From TrEMBL:
GO terms for molecular function: ADP-heptose-lipopolysaccharide heptosyltransferase activity. Pfam families: Glyco_transf_9. Keywords: Glycosyltransferase, Transferase. This is Glycosyltransferase family 9 protein. The keyword Glycosyltransferase applies. InterPro entries: Glyco_trans_9 (IPR002201), LPS_LOS_Heptosyltrfase (IPR051199). One of its GO terms (biological process) is lipopolysaccharide core region biosynthetic process. PANTHER family: LIPOPOLYSACCHARIDE 1,2-N-ACETYLGLUCOSAMINETRANSFERASE-RELATED, TETRAACYLDISACCHARIDE 4'-KINASE-RELATED. One of its GO terms (cellular component) is cytosol.
Length: 353
């Protein structure tokens, strides 16, 4: 067992993406229990740096991985040297690479101190050769694998627990300055996704909202997403024709603002995207739509999560793009009325409690 009592300074490497970073949080909570006096630094992509405001192990320093600059010929070398200097500025007692890529493992190896810990089975084979300690963990959900990596160091064999994420009153104040006080009865819709095959139709989200409004007219529907999701948001709004109360927030909130909308929501209905993992991390009831990917490995984690995925031969194909049949992907043909009925049940039960 690793002598965690002697660890005073830790570096975690997990540059992206949002969901993957959130899947590290239970492992960080476990690490904090065994290293209560240690400081934690985190190597992360700038786009996701603010999510560390919610880390269960407070982050002392955020080391930014400027991926775009490192990917350009003109800036690659100076950016790499800059990052290398940052990584070597401090001496770490423990370096953990949760990313498992050759690039992230190389960054870990540039640090002073160590040991450098990573998975024995990495996403890229060459990555493991940069580790001084390779830990084999069982296949399973990414969150469980991250926790298992830390538990090999701590010796803890208990069940994985989702940590309570810290409050962020400053982010809430900023959000309410933008959007006004949030409704007490709020359902969050997350209709965007990075893959075409993960992006269930706006008509599905509009149909769920319309039917649920008929059942529970007091609820407001907040639409969350990036600036690129505004077209989808607009289609949902147009389909609802002003008959359902909507709070359109796509492209308007920061990452921390999005977290506070999710925290205020009684239910989150989402595609397979980064924000759905944020909702699960906040222990919110989540309805998640899956098509090409496997929820058992990378889906939102927790007992309050419900997965909707059709039992057809083409699901879990891992294709980013698929050809529609009669204007709709086969795996996207979910029943809006059934989902709204399930949402009604969840929301009425929460009101009773």
């Amino acid at each position: 067992m690793f002598e965690l009592a002697k660890v005073k300074r830790i570096l975690v490497i997990k540059p992206s993406s949002l969901g993957d970073i959130l899947h590290v949080f239970p492992a960080l909570a476990e690490l904090r229990i065994h290293c209560p006096e240690a400081t934690l630094d985190f190597l992360i992509h700038p786009a996701f740096a603010d999510i560390l405001d919610y880390s269960p192990f407070p982050v002392s320093e955020r080391i930014l991985f400027e991926r775009k600059r490192m990917g350009r010929v003109s800036t690659m070398v100076p950016e790499f040297l800059k990052l290398a200097r940052e990584l070597r500025r401090k001496k770490y007692d423990l370096v953990i690479d949760f990313q498992g890529l050759t690039r992230s493992a190389l960054f870990a190896s540039l640090t002073r101190g160590g040991p450098v810990v990573g998975f024995a089975q990495t996403r890229e084979t060459a990555a493991k050769w940069f580790y001084s300690r390779r830990i084999a963990v069982a296949p399973g959900h990414a969150l469980e694998r991250n926790s298992a990596l830390i538990r090999e160091l701590t010796g803890n064999n208990g069940p994985v627990k989702l940590p309570e994420l810290p409050a962020n009153p400053a982010a809430l104040r900023k959000l309410e300055t933008l959007a006004g006080p949030l409704p007490s009865r709020l359902v969050a819709l997350i209709p965007g996704a990075r893959w075409q095959s993960k992006q269930f139709p706006p008509a599905l989200f509009a149909g769920i909202a319309r039917r649920l409004h008929q059942l529970l007219p007091d609820y407001v529907f907040a639409i969350i997403g990036a600036g690129g999701d505004r077209k989808i948001e607009q289609e949902i709004v147009e389909r609802l024709r002003g008959e359902v109360p909507v709070l359109p927030l796509a492209g308007k909130t920061s990452l921390t603002g999005m977290m506070e909308v999710l925290r205020a929501s009684s239910l989150v209905i989402s595609n397979d995207s980064g924000p759905v993992h944020a909702a699960a991390a906040l222990n919110k009831p989540v309805f998640a739509f899956f098509g090409p990917t496997c929820p058992e490995k990378t889906g939102p984690y927790g007992e309050r999560t419900r997965i909707y995925q059709l039992n057809i031969d083409c699901v879990r194909c891992m294709k980013r793009n698929c050809r529609p049949v009669d204007g709709l992907l086969r795996c996207h043909r979910l029943d809006a009325d059934k989902i709204a009925a399930d949402a009604f049940q969840v929301l009425t039960q929460s009101q009773e409690n």
